[in-house]
Amino acid sequence: MSVTPTVLYDSHGRPLEYVRLAVTDRCNLRCFYCMPEEGIQYVPRQELLTYEEMTRLVTLLAGLGVRKVRLTGGEPFVRRGLMGFIEQLTHIHGINDISLTTNGVLTAPHVPELARMGVRAVNLSLDTLDRARFHQITRRDELPQVLDTFYALLAAGIRVKINAVVMDGQNIQDLVPLAELTRDLPVEMRFIEEMPFNGGSHAATLPWNHRRIREHLEQHFGAFTPLPTPVGATASEYSVAGHQGTIGIIAAYSRTFCGTCNRIRLTAEGGLKTCLYDQGVLDIRAMLRGGSSDADIVAALTNAFRYRAANGFEAESQRPLHQLSFESMSTIGG
């Protein structure tokens, strides 16, 4: 059916213009803050949304005002056929911003094609520049491959944001070296509060919140200059005197940015999350495979956002037993 372009608003008047789409729950790293060393129980492949199903869904979301798609995982590049799927997304009317979040291990060979297809930005997960600590954190010795991807992206003119999770007792000594990358390179170095989505049984504590992260960095670099914050942005962004790039700090656990949140999440198995901290509000896969029409799916999506939590704390309070830590970030789309 032909969907009349409109704008999808949630129950708090926030336009929903950005979808984070997990194409897989599988990952080739085992970062300890994301999943146990033995990994997680992956969704059977037949239960993952097909690329055709995802294309149909993104087309419907574009008709509701979604303009940006970020592909996440797991690690997107472990799923075969990803580049062909990205090509399909570039032809969806209304989608004008396609980006990726990747750990960079398998990405470098695809960078020229990503640039050709018009991928605007890539978020690169990188918690340390030290090879031994990288191995300790990820349980894999893949830092050289990640750095190959980093420099290939820069050479191709693709905007790069580096995401580093700040972990007490693990990579605090890496914060300044990572921030130093912004001195001579046009990158945004983003430091993220640790969250409780670790696939284990204990929620994270937060000895390093966004205020402490900033204070720690300013002790080395001097006072940061706040930059304007776009509507929907998760990071508080700062310029540093004499640096080409910028510093971003994401209060992911403190949740200071919820008031302007414009994003939704789709898990690899077709679950709709209106907030990172909710338990999922709609099984879209069941609708896609159960014969629902486009109009039925649009109506269900629209209805789901009438009951969206005001912020992450409210969404968390509505979860049974608040068992956030039993999930892995790999299963909920990064």
UniProtKB/TrEMBL annotation:
Q: Which domain of life is it from?
A: Bacteria
- Any idea which UniProt keywords this protein has? 4Fe-4S, GTP-binding, Iron, Iron-sulfur, Lyase, Metal-binding, Molybdenum cofactor biosynthesis, Nucleotide-binding, S-adenosyl-L-methionine
Q: Which PROSITE patterns match?
A: MOAA_NIFB_PQQE, RADICAL_SAM
> Which SUPFAM superfamilies does the record cross-reference, listed alphabetically?
Radical SAM enzymes
List, alphabetically, the Gene3D superfamilies matched: Aldolase class I
Is Metal-binding there in the keyword field? yes
Query: Which InterPro entries has this protein been placed in?
Result: Aldolase_TIM, Elp3/MiaA/NifB-like_rSAM, MoaA, MoaA-like, MoaA_NifB_PqqE_Fe-S-bd_CS, MoaA_twitch, MoCo_biosynth_MoaA/MoaC, rSAM
Keyword Iron-sulfur among UniProt keywords: yes
- Enumerate the GO terms in the molecular function aspect: 4 iron, 4 sulfur cluster binding; cyclic pyranopterin monophosphate synthase activity; GTP 3',8'-cyclase activity; GTP binding; metal ion binding
Catalytic activities: GTP + AH2 + S-adenosyl-L-methionine = (8S)-3',8-cyclo-7,8-dihydroguanosine 5'-triphosphate + 5'-deoxyadenosine + L-methionine + A + H(+)
Q: Where is the Radical SAM core domain?
A: 11-223
For activity, the cofactor(s) needed are: [4Fe-4S] cluster
Give GO BP annotations, semicolon-separated: Mo-molybdopterin cofactor biosynthetic process
Instruction: Provide the E.C. number(s) assigned to this enzyme.
Output: 4.1.99.22
The EC category is lyase
- Note the Pfam families from the entry: Mob_synth_C, Radical_SAM
User: What PANTHER family does this protein map onto?
Assistant: MOLYBDENUM COFACTOR BIOSYNTHESIS PROTEIN 1, MOLYBDOPTERIN COFACTOR SYNTHESIS PROTEIN A
Q: What is this protein called?
A: GTP 3',8-cyclase
Source organism per UniProt? Hymenobacter aerilatus
Taxonomic lineage is: Bacteria, Pseudomonadati, Bacteroidota, Cytophagia, Cytophagales
